[in-house]
Amino acid sequence: MSVFRNESYKREHSDEIKAYVVTKCWMKEPDDRSKWSYITATLYGFGIITTLGYNRIAPVTQTGRLFCVFYGICGIPLTMIIIANFGRYLNEITKKFKSRCDKSVASSLRRASLHHRIEENRKSSVSKGNDEPSIERLTL
Q1: Any domain includes 82
Q2: Which residue, 61, 80, 100, 133, shows the most beta carbons closer than 10 Å to its own?
Q3: Tens of pLDDT along 86-135?
Q4: Which stretches of sequence are listed as region Disordered (predicted)?
Q5: Are residues 51 and 15 part of one domain?
Q6: CA 40-46-51 angle, 5° bins
Q7: Which contacts (CB < 8 Å, 24+ apart) does range 69-72 have?
Q8: How many structural domains compose the chain?
Q9: For residue 126, what pLDDT is reported?
């Protein structure tokens, strides 16, 4: 940088400096994210079929681009079908779980109600002077 601060050097080599600055500005820096490996290819394929599109890497050749188009045309509907079936499966599991919870709660409420009726029957029979509660009064 000290070379660029020297005024006489700037005047003598101004065209060279301009060319250097222009080429430096338009030169594409290598990006490690754009290098293809098995992991990046897998993530790219996943991004295509789930329509996420991370926009980090892309195929450069025409053949690669055409392959991605056909891969997406086949893979996107297939992925949506799989996601829909998985949703139905989760819905069925949730319904079964809710049904079991409802049955358990109803059973607990019936037992609590039965115990409450038995206690009331005992209290009423004791207040009448009977030591034994009568079964006839207990209605379910």
Answers
A1: no
A2: 133
A3: 999 999 999 999 999 888 888 877 777 777 777 777 766 666 655 555 55
A4: 120-140
A5: no
A6: 125
A7: 71/45, 72/48
A8: 3
A9: 60
